[in-house]
Every structure is written in structure tokens, then in C-alpha cells.
Amino acid sequence: MVPHPKRKHSQGRRDRRRSQDTLKATNLVACSNCGELRLPHTVCPNCGHYKGVEVVARESKK
Hints:
Blueprint: H1 11-18, E1 29-30, E2 37-38, E3 49-50, E4 53-54
Antiparallel strand pairs: 1-2, 3-4
């Protein structure tokens, strides 16, 4: 015998269960210039490089 639910689950209960399906961890990659972790396909917020080329000029902190 196959078990069946006695009562229908509400839409809210169903949606709360399904909300966990889309949660994913963000993948981070190391910058080729400074090694700092950053999002892929974006300029590094630490050094301003993208694919080995300085795109954003960063001021040096002294």
C-alpha cells in the first residue's frame, strides 16, 4: 500500500517548503592579480583589475 495524505497541504505550507529549492551559495573566485575573493565576471573591488587589466584606478592607502 502507498501512503497518501489525509488532508491537502495548504499553498502556504507548500510554498514554504519550495522556497528552500532556490537557495544557493554564491561561488567566489580568486582575483588573478591580488588573490582576493570576488564574484565571477566582475571587476575586483580590492584592486580594480579584470582579466589581468586594470579597469578601475584605485588610490593607494597610506
